[in-house]
Design a protein that fits this description.
Length: 278
């Protein structure tokens, strides 16, 4: 399989050129055919949220992380994998003109689309930076809140990504992340499928492993605030499995889940000794 980051960049560069409705009606978003993955399969409806802008909604999320993000007026919010700016603009409505929202995305076409959207809206406190999540161009202890929507499953090095999240959060800051995880085992054909990786399925890891990575990064008070089972349609799965393999997969009870997880960076970090210091 090609380098996973290049796969994601290629697919999401194509998707950036289309609207949400085009992504939905094309059946597989980026390619305009019905032989691949529907990139909007996990998406939720944003239309009633303050700050929603349809030009920024490509239907690529798997939750609404701002729903649980406890964003306050004046907060600095960072959105990881900001796409065309959908979650950034919703976060901006919550943090207000006195706050700041920074979107991070590694796809140039998405950054360009997001900046165009922000300019049309006249926002001067929303900016978008081209970068990998594992190496964010942001100083330490910067963010009050970090949000992300169906993106970290696309990041090959999730340990480094969560280490970066910990670094840029302020002490006492917190995150609200919607993402895709699994319980059980995905078939190897699915794990190895480039389309299923870019479609947010084969890059998903076990929920227990996901939460452990967060804990190992130093995050605390980790809570699953929302969980939803996702059914990938048979017609999609049959692009990668034959009928008997699909039946075996369904019978195995493997769950593909959309979760929204909350966690905090502690105000102080233990020194790791037994002296009782912080």
């Amino acid at each position: 399989m090609k380098d996973v980051k290049e796969i994601v960049k290629e697919k999401y560069s194509q998707i950036a050129q289309q609207s949400k409705s085009q992504n939905e009606t094309s059946c597989c978003g980026a390619t305009g055919c019905c032989s691949d993955v529907d990139y909007t399969i996990f998406s939720e409806n944003y239309e009633k949220l303050e700050g929603y802008n349809p030009d920024a909604d490509l239907g690529l999320g798997c939750g609404i992380p701002t729903e649980f993000a406890q964003i306050k007026k004046g907060d600095i919010v960072i959105d990881l994998g900001s796409g065309a700016g959908n979650d950034c603009f919703v976060a901006r409505a919550l943090t207000g003109e006195s706050g700041k929202v920074i979107g991070i995305d590694m796809t140039e076409a998405m950054i360009e689309k997001a900046r165009t959207n922000a300019e049309k809206l006249g926002y001067n406190n929303v900016e978008f930076r081209l970068s990998d999540i594992e190496r964010m161009p942001i100083t330490a202890n910067k963010a009050d809140v970090i949000v992300s929507n169906c993106v970290l499953n696309l990041v090959p090095d999730k340990v480094k990504a969560f280490d970066e999240i910990y670094r840029v959060l302020k002490p006492g800051g917190h995150l609200s992340i919607s993402d895709v995880v699994v319980r059980g085992q995905l078939p190897k054909q699915i794990q190895d499928a480039a389309e299923m990786y870019a479609g947010c399925v084969s890059g998903a890891i076990q929920m227990e492993d996901y939460l452990q990575i967060m804990e190992n990064a130093g995050l605390e008070n980790i809570q699953i605030l929302k969980e939803k089972a996702i059914l990938v349609p048979d017609e999609v799965m049959l692009n990668f499995l034959d009928a008997s393999e699909l039946k075996a997969f369904r019978n195995a009870g493997t769950d593909i889940l959309s979760i929204t997880v909350y966690a905090e960076k502690p105000l102080t970090k233990s020194c790791g000794c037994s002296c009782g210091c912080n």
